[in-house]
Amino acid sequence: LSFNLLEFIGFTKEEIRQANDYVCGTMTVENAPFLKEKDYPVFDCANKCGRYGKRYLSYESHIKIMAAAQPFISGAISKTINLPENATIDHVKDAYNLSWKLMIKANALYRDGSKLSQPLNSVLEILNFEDSEIPKSEEKKEEAVKVTEKIIYRYLSQRRKLPTRRAGYTQKAMVGGHKVYLRTGEYEDGQLGEIFIDMHKEGAAFRSLMNAFAISISLGLQHGVPLEEFVEAFTFFKFEPNGIVSGNQHIKMGTSVIDYIFRELAITYLGRYDLAQVSPEDLRGDEIGRSKPQTVGTDSSLQSTVITKEINESTVTPTSVKTFTPTPLSVTEVIARAEVLTAKVAVSSESSSKEEARIKGYTGDSCLECGSFQMVRNGSCLKCISCGSTTGCS
Description:
Helices cover 32% and strands 11% of the residues. It contains ten helices and nine strands. Strand 1, helix 4 (89-101) and strand 2 form a beta-alpha-beta unit. Helix 7 (227-234) runs antiparallel to helix 8 (257-270).
């Protein structure tokens, strides 16, 4: 910018501008020869074209174009809705309101000049800068060096030790045929402070790794790491042993021992019943079905349940009613009949469960995330009713 050859040889600003227009073009079709003004709308663009352009597409036209195509597209349309540099907040509100009225799934607005670097108008900005008058007496000033400052806080947490005598619970379960004992330790306020993991059928190496893992989790909890972070990090980890979980009233399938442990902790201490296959409502006695199986009582209770009705022979004639003598049943016969009745109820319950699964559309496939068998068709893919994950479709 310190030396301009055209100005040095005597060209004026207007002559330089005309030369630029002749050599480089005006970057617009407006005022072009042999082009009728009624045909200008065919060439309208998202922004004003060049130095002399006045026409551009309004944001309403962008939205209406998208609205015309939206019914034929399943997802959102990836298209920028351009606004001029002088657009206001009200224009943005109107754009979103119009998009909502026309039922567009997505709205991506961009106001011209909102970015520090945008290639669309860079050439035009250079030309405008060349047109501006720069006082010759103004000396080139040294550009100030920008210093970026960042404040870094170093957080030194202190360990919150557990009391020497603390509450907690022990949960025994079977994960994929392996016994798992989960023991917890709590603070006075009921928050989780430590865990211990014991396994039955594992070798010394795996047992030691699980113990070291439990110690690291306990230290993290005592140094202020929220349990939520551990739950989000370790749920649905998949490795063996895994599969069916027995001994836990809320969790019935697990992708690994770690997955089972942190889902159990999330349900107990965070109330995350969304991670359970069985919700608390399913365990209530007033729900459909029995909360626990009925068992046969003692011999004395069985004998008391055998009721015989006496027939008053004075009220009926011998010809109308035959003499009925109740046959006493032994305890063994009562137990046998009760077992047969229980088996019939179990078969009926199993058939009703199959009918319910057929009505709900379960395919019988297991979920890769939570392991449940509540997979239903979702287009060309499968969707899990339990955790919401899919096999590939969004």
